[in-house]
Structures are given as structure tokens and as C-alpha cells.
Amino acid sequence: MEVKNKILDKSFLKKILSSKGAYLLLLPGMGLFFTFILFPLIYSLRMSFYKWNIVDIGASKFIGFSNYVRVINDPIFIRATLNTIVYTLITVPGQILFALVVAILLNQKIKGRTFFRVAYYIPVITSWVVVTFLFEYFFGSQAGLVNFILKDILHLVDKKIMWLTDPILVMIPLNLLGIWKGVGWSAIILLAALQNIPLDLYEAATIDGAGIWHKITKITLPLIRPTLVFLVVVLVIGGFNVYVSGLLMTKGGNPLDLSHFILTLMYKKTFTNLDFGYGSAISYLLAAFIFMVSVIEIKLLRRKVEY
Amino acid sequence: MKRLSIFLIVIMLITGMTLGGVAEEKKVVTYWHTMGDAEEEALIKVIEMFEDQYPNIKIKPTRMAYDDFKPALLIGIAGGVVPDTARLDIIWVPEFAEIGALVALDEEMEGFDEIIANTYPGPTSTNFWKGHYYGLPQDTNTQVLVWNKQMFEEAGLSGPPETIDEFVKYAAVLSNPDEEIYGYTMGGTYFWAPASIFYAMGGEVTDSEITTATGYINGEKSVAAYQVLVDMYRDESLSPLLLGGGGIGAFEGLATGKYAMIIEGPWAHPILKSDYPEFEVNFALVPRGPDVTTSSVVGGQNVVIFEGSQHKDEAMLWAKFLLSEEAQLTIGETGAIPTLSTVQGNERLPEYYDVFMEQLKTAKARVPHPKWAEMDNAINNAYQYMLRDEKTVQQALDDAAEEINRLIIEE
Amino acid sequence: MLTTKEERIFRNISYILLICGVVITLVPFIYMISASFKSQIYTFEYPPRLIPRDPTLENYIKALGKDLFGRNLLNSFFVATATTISTVFISSLMAYAFSRMQFPGKEVFFYILLLGMMIPPVMLIIPQFIIAKNLHLLDSLWGLIVVYVSVTLSMQTFLLRSFFETIPRELEEAVLVDGGTRWDIFRKIILPLSKPGLAVVAIFTFLYAWDEFPWAHVAIREGSRRTLPVAIALFQSQYLTQWGLLFAATTVASIPAVIVFVIFQRYFIQGVVTSGLK
User: Fold this and answer.
1) Could you please report the per-residue DSSP string of A228-251?
2) More confident residue, B306 or C242
3) Chain C residues lying within 8 Å of A267, measured CB to CB
4) Does B63 contact C223 at a Cβ distance shorter than 8 Å?
């Protein structure tokens, strides 16, 4: 099956012909992918270099990198990028940490395991739209549960906090939402990874007199490393792509465009201000940024790239 | 036997052919809207009437989610898939006209001038951009004071305030911030919310030719208007709901005794009646400012025809029909005020319309400019700065004026 | 891992912690369900009550009674199921090729596919719309399915591929030795052993298609062909959000998703276990 090292005698064409089975398998999927993902991606790139006119596309004005320059210099974009980075820095470790705890706890023979699994997974199943509404309802200033608990039950504050109207405070429900929604997903994946660790390793450690902490740091963590790397990469991508929750909760960067995420800003510029080329430029910068970060992560965190 | 069957087959063929011949293709006109439940029911009736009159045309309405309506339209335009007609917010018409998406009705539509001779000038003017009319005013509205009689009586007040001074005083009396009861509440800081008071105090955003905002949005009267609101906010007679934050909604609060006054449009009536049937709905004109009679802001929707439509002629028939007396009255019964002046006072229209019609006489329209969305944003930000005490009212409005001037020039 | 006594203590603490965690996790939902049984006046009552004062079914009756709700539910079900079946099929073909076969351009294709996972779908909506229109895929449930499959293909192929990697090659070689074809391998070895992995893909895909909103709202305008998320969004009108109705409709909409998960979660856990995700 390994044809790789016979490059010199086989001509390239012959190789392609002999791989027709593989290409056949790839055809439907790649066909769809090229049509609906790759081509639109290139189209979008093109849009970003123009002052795009959607009614009469031919009348669009070519302006080169002008959109990109404007984006980078826009203080609103800079703030949005900051918010997005902070969001990622908080939610990714948050999800992984809590997920790890949950996974370790669930990795025992306890009753009601299925119940717990399903319960922790429910936030993952529910749509972003719904959970954002729920958190808005919770953190609402007048009748929200959170304020009720903080003020009337725990007496930690004497006035209700206006969570959703403060550009910095609003990040709290948004970040909490991000963590809350993702923990279940990571937990299940980590749980699986934990189950792959042979029990005798732990037994041997016990015999050597090791305590729990030692076992966790010297056995558990190293052995689930590939999974952790996978989680970090995927969750970071998700973090930078935060969108629906921001859109609904900040309603367009409320207030004063200070609480935008990169994608909510892109949405506003495209659909409210009708600046399609500009919006396209923003999303391209984001995509490029995500790509770079992912590549760096993979190179740094993994000792070998396995394909 | 054989002859009979041949006879039958021939009959069937002939019938089939004639039927095929008679059944012409019906032209379909699509119509996008964001109507609520009650209006939608009325719309169905209007469609039936139209299809009776024009049996060869079929109207296909599609209800869209309000929050996503504009993006959906834009994506449709970008993809070349536009509805034939739609009911757009009056504010969007200049924008869509500017990008060339709409048909100039004054040029293309037969009898256009006769129709607008009978519609109220205010709403009609919102269709005008760069010399042409790009739509017909389908319905209009304005906002008036809605007040909670019970709360007034309990506070010893006999009736609604008639001047702004009374308004401020009453609001203070009716407020009890510790209980989170407020004399007045506003849904947000976007311009539509304070607009009624703004215009009632003589405020202006730009000059009538839309050449500059300096001296208008930051002029004396505009500043005074916003100052009143900011003072009320500091005095805690204006609810902090306006900053956003998921507080109790205007309608819920009014009906449950949390807010004594709100300023809302005619939709308030059906909404309050259906969700809070026990509550007594009372309307009053917007309190008047120092040297103004009374005023408010004009809202509403226009029916437009898209350039990409394949059935422009049929679409125009539909648009015209929506402006007929029968259509205006049918939909008018459900909370959308007609723009046809000839039906004013008609007994089919709900009584509570009277106060709105009265208010409409002096209500003002917002700036009909494609960049209005960004101008609104500038004024919105100004309001936020004022409320958060980061700028004085004058400063904030000066900055807004600069921003609006910049947007006007960008044209 | 621990001594029996330690084990017991640890287990008890675990229970307590897990239950606390579940409470935090589920509280928003319990709240939502509770709100769905309250009439409008009580939606914003303060202090917030968990048990409704005057529980009522009016929200459910109104929401479910809305003309097309049932129809929209069925549409969503159809779209989600079809998308899932198509995606499972197509992505397993691709995953198999990437995992088991060698061909020129393999790395390139794979990286391009991976790119698909990193892109925010919202940025592609305009060009996707134009293409869909040219292919006559608009206003049709099939059009929805085609686009959904395209969008989720990257992730699912990636998952399945890493899953296939864990199936021992010796099994396949045994089949070849016995004179079987590649198709036999696929049928007799790969598919049966992949049940867990396929379950993972099935769940993720179903949930994605079930909840998707932005594309569904734009691509389908005919009321009777709309999907559930769009129908629910219509409870927010220009002037008012009818929270009670919204929550009732959402509760109902969540039920199938939960059921699908509960059914598949058995294979799902197993699937993630074996895939190792390296």
C-alpha cells in the first residue's frame, strides 16, 4: 500500500491514475466544499478590495488595501479585537479546567453516570440564541436572578448591578456563557481520554506512595496531552469566532461600540452600514489571524505533527 | 362500443385542451413584511380582495423576523433575489434608494401623483430622495403619551401633564426609586426614544436641506431637550431601563404599576389589550415645550418596489391597491394608522386613533438620508455620554454635530 | 487508583461536587421552563420565583397553535435528518480516503478542508447566497440540506478520520488476503467498528442542522417551508418580545434534540473513547 518512495520510476500521471479510487471517494465532499466554502471564500476576498456595490456589482470601485488600512486604524476594531482576545483567554482555560474536574469526577464508578453526562451536555445541545436569551434574562438589571441573589440573598451589593449596560461588566455574562456552554463538550472528550489511561499505572504509583496530586500531574496530564492540545486548538478557534451571544446581548456593541466582538462588528458594518467590502476585510483579517494562531499552537504544543 | 370510446376520448381531449387553454399562468407578486399577528390577518383579507379584483395576479406574502429583515433584504439584493414589493421602515427608503435598489415610482407608476395628492404630506415626504419618490406611504404612526391613570390618581394628580414643566414635575412625584417605580421610562437611547420630547421642545437635527447639523442638533432647543431628560435621569424619575440591560419592558412596567408614563405608538393599544387585558389604556398628546404647540416623531412604513422585480406592472397594481380606501381601512383597524387622508375619521377605525391623528398634525419626520443609521448612532452615543456623565449635554451634541456633518459630506 | 477508604471519601465528595455542578448547569433551563408556564404579567416578577404563582398552559397553546409551528417542526426534522445521513455518508468516504489511501495532493486537500473549520460561516453568507441562487437551491429544503452538509463537512471528516486511524490495519489486510475487495473492507470492517465514531458525527451534525438560523432565515422565505429556529425568532416582533411564548416554543424545540442525544450518547461516549483524538 505504501507507494510513496517509488517517485523516480513512476511518472506523476501514473500515480494520479492509480489513485482514481481515492479521488472518487473525495469527489462528492470536495465538490460541495469547493462550491460552498472555497469559492465563496475567494469571492469574499475579492469583495474586500472593493467599495462593493450589491445592486450593480460591476459598478463596484476597486480600492486595493484601503479597506484593510481603515480597519486596522479603527479604534472600534481595536477594542473589538481586545474584547475577543480577552474572551478567548478566559473561556478556553475556563472550559478546559472545569471540564477536567468534571471528567475526573465522572471517571469513577458512580451511580447515575448517564444522568450526569446528559445533564452536563444539555447546554451544548441548546442553540446559542436560546442560551443568550436565558443569560440576558438572568443578568437583567431589574428582575434578574443574579441581582436577586447578590442583593437580597447574599447582601453583597446594595444596589442592583446594571450588567448589560456597562461595556466591561457585560463581558462577565458573555464570558460566563461561553464557559458554561462549552464545559460539557470538553468534559465528554476528556472523559474519553481519561478512560484510555491504563489503571495499573495508577496502581503502581500508589504502591510507590504517591498522593493524588502527584498522580494527576505526573500520570494523568501527560497522558492526555494530545487531547488537551486538540481541545486548545479547537476551543481557541471557537473563542475567536464568538458571535451570536455578542450580537444578541450587546445589540451592536452597546454602548458606544465598546462591547463588540470582531464578528459582531463585521455584522454591523455589513448589514447596518452597508459597507460590504469593509465587513469582508474584517472577516478576512479574523480568518487570517485564526489560521496563524492555530498553526503556531499546533507547532508549539505538539512534538510531532501526525497525519 | 368502439365508437363510444373514441367519442369519449375525443371529448376528453377537447375538454383538456380548452381547460389547458383557459388556465393561464397567474403572475405572482411577492411582498415581504414584518407585520404582527393582528395586522397579518388583516393583510390576508386585503390580499383576497385584491385577487378578486385581479384574478390573474396572485400575491405571496412572507413574514420576516424584524431583527434580521434588513440583512435578509440586503443579502437578497446581493444575490439578485429580491421580493417584488416590501413594506420597509420609512427610514430605510433613502438608503435603499441610494444604492439603486428601488424603482422611482413617480416616474414609473401611472397615477402616482393622484395617489399622493390624498396622502398626508409628512409620511409621503419620507419616500423622497434626490428628486424622486421611491415608495408609497403605506402606514404611518407617531408616539404619544401613554399614562397609568391609577398611579396618577394615587399620587393625587388629576390628569396627564400638558407642558414639559408639568411633565417633569409629575414624573418626580410619581417616582419612588427605592421601589423601582419611575414616573417615566424610555426603551433605549436610540434617537426614536427621546425623539418625541426632542421635537416637542423644538429640537432639530439638521436644517431642512440637510446641509449641516451645526446649530441644529447642538442648537439651544436641542440641548435644552436633552438636558431635561438627563436631569430627569439624575433625579431618578426616568428609569435606567434606557441604558439597556434587560430591565422590565415599557409595556410590562406600565401595566404593572412600575412606570407611570411611557411614550409609545398606536401598537401600544393592541399589545396592552392582548397581554394585559385588565389595564386601562389612556393616551394623551405629548407635553408641549416652552414655545411649541406639541410635537412628536413620525414613524411608519412605506411600500416599495424593487428594481430586480420581474413583475413590475403587477407589483405596481398591488402597491396602489394597498393605498386604496378599503385596504387602508382593513389594515387600519388593527393598529396601523392609514396614510390616506380621505379615510380619516372613518368609523371603522378605532377611536383611540384620534389622539394619534391629532398628534400627526404637528409631528416631525427624522432626517431622510441614506446615512441616517450612522447619524442615529452618533446621536445615540451622544446620549450615552451624557447619561454616563462623560460629557456635558452641549459637548456631546457638539461632537454629534461634527459626526453628522462628516456623514453628510461623505455623500 | 486510591485506597478503598480514600476512594469512598473521594467518591462522596465527587457526588456533592457533581451535583452542585449540575445545578449550576441546569438552573437556566429550569428557569426557562418555569417561565414558560407563567403568563406575561409574571415574566418579570420580582423577586423571581421558581414555581409559577399561577401556572398556565397558555404559552404552550398559543405557541404550538401558531399556524405553521407543527409544519416548521417537521421541516426541521426532515432537514436535520437528511443532513445527518448525507454528511455521515460523504464524510466517511472522505475520511476513509484520507486515512487509508495515498494519493497525490493528499496533504493539500486535507489542509484545505481543515481551513473550512476555522472560517466563521457568517462571512460567507453573501457569496453562498449568490451561488445557491444560481443553482436554484433557494426556497427549498433540499437547498438547505446541501449547504448545511457543505458547511459541516470539514469538522465531521476530521473527526471520522482520526477515528478511522484507530482501527487496526491488520484486520483490513486479513480481508484482502482472503480475497476481498476494498468495498468488502468498508462494509465488513470499517462500518461496523465505526459505529461509535459515526454516532459522534451523527449527533454533531443533527444538532447543527436543527439549530441553524442565519442561513435558514435568508434562504427560505416561504412560510410553510421554514424551519423551527426561524419560526421561534418570529416571537420577537418589532415592539415586543413575548418571552413566555418564546420559552415555551424553545422548550418544545429542545425536546427532540435531547432525545436524539440520549439515544446516541451511548455510542457517542464509546466513540470518543476509541477515537483517541490524536
Assistant:
1) HHHHHHHHHHHHHT--HHHHHHHT
2) B306
3) 122
4) yes
B120's grid cell: 398626508
End-to-end, the C-alpha distance of chain C in Å comes to: 25
Contacts of C274 in chain A (CB under 8 A): 192
Q: What are phi and psi of C141, to 5 degrees?
A: -65, -35
ipTM of the complex: 0.80
Distance CA(B304)–CA(B319), nearest Å, equals 8
Residue B90 is placed in which grid cell?
A: 420609512
Q: What is the pLDDT of residue C101?
A: 80
Instruction: Using alpha carbons only, give the angle A37, A39, A44 rounded to the nearest 5 degrees.
Output: 90
Cβ–Cβ < 8 Å for A243, A127: no
Q: Please count the other Cβ atoms lying within 10 Å of the Cβ belonging to residue B343.
A: 18
Summary count for chain A: helices (H), strands (E): 16, 2
Residue B176 β-bridge partners = B181
Q: What CA–CA distance (Å, rounded) separates C278 from C265?
A: 21
- Most A CBs within 10 A among B377, B386, B410, B411, hence the mutation to make, goes to B377
Pairing between β-strand B298-305 and β-strand B85-89 as defined by DSSP bridges? antiparallel
Task: Tell me whether residue C218 is exposed, middle or buried, using C-beta atoms within 10 angstroms of its C-beta: 0 to 12, 13 to 18, 19 or more.
Answer: buried
Q: What residues contact residue C52 under an 8 Å CB cut-off, 6+ apart?
A: C34, C35, C37, C38, C42
Cell 476513509 locates to C96
Which residues, 6 or more positions from C218, have their beta carbon under 8 angstroms from its beta carbon?
A: B68, B71, B72, B75, B76, C125, C129
Residue C72 CB contacts under 8 Å (≥ 6 apart), including other chains: C226, C227, C228, C230, C231
Q: How far is CA C151 from CA A7, A234, A284, C118, C212, in A?
A: 35, 16, 18, 11, 11
Question: Cβ separation of A164 and B374 shorter than 8 Å?
Answer: no
Chain C nearest-CA residue for B64: C234
Q: Which residue of B has its CA nearest to C218?
A: B72
Share of residues in chain B with pLDDT > 90 (%): 36
Contact (CB, 8 A) for B331 and B39: yes
Taking CB atoms and an 8 Å cut-off, how many pairs form between chains A and B? Answer: 70
Give CA separation, B218 vs A227, B213, B394, B398, B400, in Å.
59, 8, 7, 5, 8
Please tell me the distance from the alpha carbon of residue A107 to that of residue B307, in angstroms, as a whole number.
63
Q: Give the pLDDT score at A307.
A: 32
Residues 50-89 of C with CB under 8 A from A: none
Residue B280 confidence (pLDDT) above 80: yes
More confident residue, C67 or C3: C67
Residues 45-74 of B with CB under 8 A from C: 60, 62-68, 71-72
Q: Chain A neighbours among C 133-172 (CB < 8 Å)?
A: 135, 146-147, 149-151, 153-154, 157
Q: State yes or no: pLDDT of C276 exceeds 70.
A: no
Determine the Cα–Cα distance for residues B37 and B41; give it in Å rounded to an integer.
6
Q: Pick from B263, B303, B284, B270: which is nearest to B123 by CA?
A: B303
Cell triple for A203: 496502581
Whether A294 shows a pLDDT value over 60: the answer reads: yes
pLDDT digits (tens, 9 = 90+) for A31-64: 999 999 999 999 989 888 988 887 777 778 888 8
Of B71, B264, B276, which has the smallest distance from its Cβ to C41's Cβ?
A: B276
pLDDT in tens, C192-251: 777 777 887 888 899 889 988 888 888 887 778 888 888 887 776 666 677 788 888 888
Rounding to the nearest 10 degrees, give the CA dihedral for residues B46, B52, B57, B62: 30
Helix and strand numbers (H, E) in chain B are 18, 12
**A271/B246 Cβ within 8 A:** no
In chain C, how many H helices and how many E strands? 13, 0
